[in-house]
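DinB family protein
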Amino acid sequence: MTDQPARWTQATVYPDMWADPDDDPRNTEGVSPDGELATLQDFLTDYRTTLRMKCEGLDAEQLARRSVPPSTMSLLGLLRHLAEVERDWRNWITDGDPLPKIYGDGGGDFHGAVAEEAEVEAAYSALAKEQAATDAKLAEHPDLGERLGKDGIAVRELMVHRIDEYARHCGHADLLRECVDGRVGQ
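Structure:
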C-alpha cells in the first residue's frame, strides 16, 4: 500500500495532454496573433489559464497541501504568490511609493496558504484583482520599448518577465498537482 496517487489524465485524444483539444480553453489551434505585444499577451494569458486549470477540481485541503516536504509550496501558495508578484510588478513601473505587500513580508504568500475555503476564495479574488490592475497599468503603455518607473524597466522586459514567472510556476503546479491526486498532462 502506498500514499502516492496513481497517475492519470482526463485527456482521451492525446494521453500526455491535460485536456482534450476540444475542451482546452487555451488558444492552441488557429492562427497566432499579429504583432509582438499581442503575442506576449497571448502567451501570458495561456500560462495564467494553465495555472487555473492545474488548480481546478481540488478542494481547499488539496490546494493547500504542501506536496513536496519540506517545501512550503502548494497550489494555493502559488495563487497567492502570483497575486503578490503582480503587485510587485506594478511597483516596478510606478514612480510613487510602493503598494504594501498583500500577505506581509517573509513568505506569507506560502506560509499563510491554509486549507480554508475562505482563503481559497480570497486567493483567487486577489489574483484576479492584481492581474487586472497590472494589465490596466500596462495597457497605458503599448510601446514595448518605453521605460517606466524609477529603474527605467522596459515594458517588453516586464512582459517577458511575467511570462517567465508564470511558466516557471506552471511547471511547479504540474508537479504539485501530480502529488495531490496523480493528474498529469501539459
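The CA atoms of residues 54 and 120 lie 14 Å apart.
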